[in-house]
Amino acid sequence: MNNAIEIINLHKSFGDLNVLKGVSLSVKEGEVVSVIGPSGSGKSTLARCICRLEEINSGEIRLYGTRFDNKQHSNKELSSMVGMIFQQFNLFPHLSVLDNITLTPVKVRSFTKEKADKLAKDLLDRVGLSDKIHARPRQLSGGQMQRVAIARALAMEPQIMLFDEPTSALDPELVGEVLDVIAGLAKTGMTMMIITHEMLFAKEVSDRVLFMDDGRIIEDGTPSEVLTHPTQIRTQTFLKRMLAHFGEQLTKDTSGKDDQYGS
Amino acid sequence: MDLDFVTLIPYLHMFWAGVLITIRASILAVILGSILGVIVGAMRVLPFKTLRSVAAAYIYIIRGTPLLIQLFLIYFGLPSLGLNLPAFAAGIVGLSINSSGYVGEIVRGGIEAVPKGQWEASQVLGLSYIKSMKHIILPQAIRNMLPAFGNEFITLIKESSLLSTLAITELTMVGQQVRSVTYASFETFILVGLIYLFLTSCIGLGLGIVEKRWQVS
Question: Which of A175, A223, B113, B170 could form a disulfide with B21 if both were Cys (CB 3.0 to 4.6 A apart)?
């Protein structure tokens, strides 16, 4: 069987700045992979290359065996393969919550309005925002906006979901509600790649953690391998710096305990 | 100093006729100028380099030269190429072309003011370029454009006074005619100015209502 995501020797630069310096990665179907690392390490660019928001310089990106790293496939085809959650939510401010979710099922997947409405209601129920169905994005909190964005992405029923620092723009007290939704999604067996600075969350929810630095994946293993017993000096340094913020929680064995990752 | 507006009363029908021509010219020019301007503005944002350069050069020239010279070129210049336009038609063409340069910039600015994330979300959710433009970008861009667009309409009404140089009997021309008969220069041009102020205020008021309604919905 093909891997959900297969990346071979991916290079990406912006002008003179080499952001990705040969990234290779396989993600199996149903795997939940968290990507951690310092700012500027290329985590976001990696996710943006996978969903074709950035053109790659060289290498290959295959999703279920098919290359999507060129313009041969339409946005429509790509959207059935991969969904993306942005740090800044990017909800459509001129549309209600309902219309934010139903627009692309109707315009891209040719759903009837009734079918799309039904789907939107189910998804809003799932992210716990049924009561906000007719609200405008500006009337929502950041956490609610991100949950709507997740519902909107799920409405395209993609095979793979990417999360680009989904909680980085949120007030601390709103982080938990979004992480709960993502953790719930992870349990459904969806293939997910989560770029995050929430170390506890990464530890709880992931099957695998990648540590990126300077445009390369330098550590790749189970959460406890990478987060608790990292082998690379750079990973250790990074985690030490993160621990200075988050205290001792990470080093404790938190397996079996849910809902401990809110910051 | 005595101001005697009563002397103007016998000529009010002339002012009225002039106002109608001013309004007609402005409305025609704003419609034609907007159509042309939207095309030019679209050319400025479409992902085709040649089109973008052509539109940029057009806007550069139109905005960098006086409307009066543009009018003279069309009315007095084009006949030497064998193209004779009646004064009113030449005036409308000149005003429209002039306005299209500014509208083009308004359209470009309005579209570019929509955050990049809106394009990205549209693309990732599977919308094509055209569908993104239609359903996501333009509805937001038009809201951005509205105030500037209203200002452009107001500017156009005021600049239509230059049509008097082509001997079109719009409001300003009527003012000159009435002044030459009555010698009541001050009174005449105070009245003319007030009429322009009234026209531009109507646009401003109408625009305020539209903007407010748009914000509620």
Answer: B170
